[in-house]
Design a protein that fits this description.
The chain is built from 17 helices and 24 strands. It has 609 residues and is α+β, with helices and mostly antiparallel strands. The protein has 3 domains: 2-103 and 292-514, no CATH class; 125-285, no CATH class; 545-608, no CATH class. The strands form 5 sheets. It has an 8-stranded mixed β-sheet, with helices on both faces. Helix 10 links the parallel strand 17 (381-389) and strand 18 (422-428). Residues 1-31, 520-544 are annotated as: Disordered. One of its GO terms (molecular function) is arginyl-tRNA--protein transferase activity. Its EC number is 2.3.2.8. InterPro entries: Acyl_CoA_acyltransferase, Arg-tRNA-P_Trfase_1_euk, N-end_Aminoacyl_Trfase, N-end_Aminoacyl_Trfase_C, N-end_Aminoacyl_Trfase_N.
Length: 609
């Protein structure tokens, strides 16, 4: 454990040199191999350590080496670089990318851009409550305070005319719609462990002795049923539709207009007497005609107190983190520290004007920071790492908007750097509904986990519908009429027996906050159950461990040139470690990246001397 902490400290301290770029003594990649890692899964919520990956602590990384690692399925979290063991892990994570010049926005994506533009122009009619419940439970269809003090606040947003697709058939006068049911469902799911159980309304039924899952559709029906009395007196009607709550005009439009002009609606909802907290909500209308200015700044990765304040607000309200989970230290380690060596612009068409490295893209509206995109700009791509935004502006879908802006940035900078062609969206997990939004940026490609070829998503999707782990290149060859590689179709479509989750002496168990999972809060919080499946392990690439570049303090030597310095037991140990490392990073990168061995410091000094 002490050795692992030492590696983390060295990686973090080296970050200042790496981000400094020109101040670095040499442009080389140096890593420490920590081997297989097991942790609980943030996607399928597995209680056991079923998330399995290979990890490296990066003391420094050149942008070319990190680009090559991305194209082998790796990804970084701060200075930690990890790669899922696809045939073993519970939720296989496929690297997904998009060729920016080929991007065709969907109607929904265009709608997001127009919504933001209307907000900036002052023509977007936005309504939101002044106060919402701090705690939730559903009992008899009414809102009340829960005894669980750890329940989290749920934000409600209403936007007029932005969800036309949610209209009931035959309705022509939809005034506005609310997606609050999805947010309540997500909050209840997060608080489920602390609450223990949730009572359902009379409209819910028991199935096999257990209550069904709290779905947004059920919550919408409950809320709509118990909100009818107040709006009907104001000339409105309420109906639930596919988890949304729709508000329609019933003909008394003048009364509705008078209420809107007064600036308040639903001064107080009916609440049972004796409740500690009542459901008090106010809706106000944003003043029309006020124009706002959007500014987007691209800055090198560094600590910014304003960014940290926004990040803390986002994590507490959107991801329901506790205050101690959102420390400045964890923020720095996750989103500020970087091993990437900055490459300044050269002006010769090989580097964009901002340079290569790690950046924070800030979004400011009227000078106020509202979102931050953490990105890496590499020789072939912009790699999107994380985004946090102001929860008060959730109705703007800033996650989707920032993705469109990042794609636009790649297109614009191709003029300055022709090699910069792709937009990497991180990992795609087909079994996790929160990740499926990434495939909406079309036409996208998934990385084959065995042969590292890029396969069109349309080819991969029907295969992933049937099985979580698939060697995508085999089936791509099949669709082109080419003969299959040695790994056959039958091998991949039949489950092989064997305990892939058995303990291994090389496994490293980690605390789950080492790798922070990127979950988009704009999508519904519905994750599928984990399944146990297996496929043939990835074949080792041709390579000689003797050619791996070893770093011993100031020395850089091939392992074959160092063998005589090791004893027989040390040599066998090193050969085993290097074979595992070469399988993970590939033969070519293992000969280029400096491998710093996990040996006692005194022994390394002896060899160095």
């Amino acid at each position: 454990m002490a050795e692992k902490k030492k590696m983390k400290s060295e990686a973090s301290s080296s970050n200042s040199n790496s981000s400094g770029g020109q101040n670095s003594s040499r442009a080389e990649s140096v890593v420490m191999d920590v081997g297989r890692r097991r942790s609980s899964c943030g996607y399928c919520r597995s209680a056991s350590h079923t998330s399995i990956s290979h990890g490296l602590w990066a003391l420094s990384l050149t942008v070319d080496d990190y680009q090559a690692l991305l194209d082998r399925g790796w990804r970084r979290s701060g200075c930690f670089v990890y790669k899922p063991e696809m045939e073993r892990t519970c939720c296989p994570s496929y690297t997904i990318r998009l060729e920016a010049s080929e991007f065709v926005p969907t109607k929904e994506q265009l709608r997001v851009s127009k919504r933001v533009q209307r907000f900036l122009d002052g023509t977007l009619d936005v309504r939101k409550p002044e106060k919402v419940m701090n705690e939730w439970s559903i009992s008899g269809g009414s809102c009340s305070s829960s005894q669980n003090e750890s329940a989290n606040c749920v934000a409600m947003e209403f936007s007029s005319g932005d969800h036309e697709e949610q209209k009931n058939q035959g309705s022509e006068d939809l005034l506005f719609t609310s997606n609050v049911s999805f947010q309540i469902s997500a909050a209840l799911r997060q608080a489920k462990k602390g609450i223990g159980h949730v009572q359902y309304s009379k409209c819910s039924t028991e199935e096999n002795g257990q209550y069904p899952e709290i779905s947004p559709k059920l919550i919408a029906e409950i809320l709509a049923r118990h909100l009818k009395e107040v709006p009907e007196s104001c000339g409105l009607s309420i109906r639930a539709c596919n988890g949304h709550i729709n508000f329609y005009s019933t003909g008394n439009q003048n009364m509705y207009n008078d209420i809107v002009k007064s600036g308040t609606m639903w001064k107080q909802l009916p609440a049972e007497s004796g409740r500690k907290h009542s459901c008090l909500n106010k809706i106000f209308v944003t003043s029309q005609g006020k124009r706002r200015q959007l500014e987007i700044r691209l800055r090198r990765s560094s600590y910014d107190p304003e960014e940290y304040s926004l990040y803390r607000k986002y994590q507490l309200r959107v991801h329901n983190d506790t205050p101690d989970q959102v420390s400045e230290f964890s923020y720095r380690r996750f989103l500020v520290d970087t091993p990437l060596i900055f490459v300044p612009p050269t002006g010769d068409g090989t580097v964009p004007p901002c340079g290569f490295g790690s950046f924070h893209q800030q979004y400011l509206i009227d000078g106020q920071l509202v979102a931050v995109g953490v990105i890496d700009i590499l020789p072939k791509c912009l790699s999107s790492k994380y985004l946090f935004w102001d929860p008060d502006l959730a109705f703007l879908s800033l996650g989707k908007y920032s993705a469109l802006e990042e794609i636009r940035w790649v297109k614009e900078n191709q003029v300055h750097c022709p090699s910069l062609q792709y937009y990497y969206l991180g990992y795609y997990i087909h079994s996790c509904n929160k990740m499926r939004y990434k495939a909406a940026y079309r036409p996208s490609e998934l990385l084959c986990p065995l042969r590292y070829q890029w396969i069109p998503f349309d080819v991969a999707k029907p295969l992933l519908d049937r099985k979580r782990y698939v060697v995508l290149s085999d089936f791509a060859s099949l669709t082109k009429g080419e003969p299959l590689p040695p790994t056959t179709l039958q091998n991949h479509m039949e489950d092989l027996h064997g305990d892939l989750f058995s303990e291994c002496k090389d496994d490293v168990f980690i605390h789950e906050d080492v790798e922070m999972i990127e979950l988009d809060s704009e999508d519904s919080d519905v994750d599928s159950e984990p399944e146990t499946s297996s496929s043939p392990p990835a074949a080792a690439e041709d390579g000689d461990v003797g050619n791996i570049l070893i770093g011993m303090k100031s020395l850089r030597l091939r392992f074959k040139d160092l063998c005589q310095a090791f004893g027989s037991s040390e040599r066998r140990y090193m050969e085993t470690q290097l074979q595992r490392y070469m399988r993970a990073v590939g033969a070519e990168l293992s000969e280029r990246i400096v491998y710093q061995p996990d040996l006692p410091l005194t022994r390394m000094q002896e060899i160095d001397e």
